[in-house]
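Example 3.2
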Amino acid sequence: MSSDTSKLPSRNELPDVLREMMQADRFEDVIELMVSLVDQMSETHARALLDLKLALKARYGRQSEKLSEEQLELLVDSATEIISERASPVAEEELSQPPSTYTVWPVTKSEAFEAR
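Structure, written as tokens:
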């Protein structure tokens, strides 16, 4: 008997086919048939498992919500408005000064205590 799975007996025919083979002392054919059936079941199981994994990934996998161009512009406009409302005149004044007037991080311990 060949291992071609297209010629395997159906579930209903299998017991009769196996009995006939065993009565005719065709034990090697019985073993080959059983191995073919196990191979077929293994392939079917592997396909089903792959389908399940793909379905689970599609359902629960990484997803990201997409923002439309309009939503992104609205977000930027809102953030800009909030920042401009909260910006203090002192902060704007400090930012407008040249970099040489900014405080430099103290180098020594004594300068660190004096800066506090």
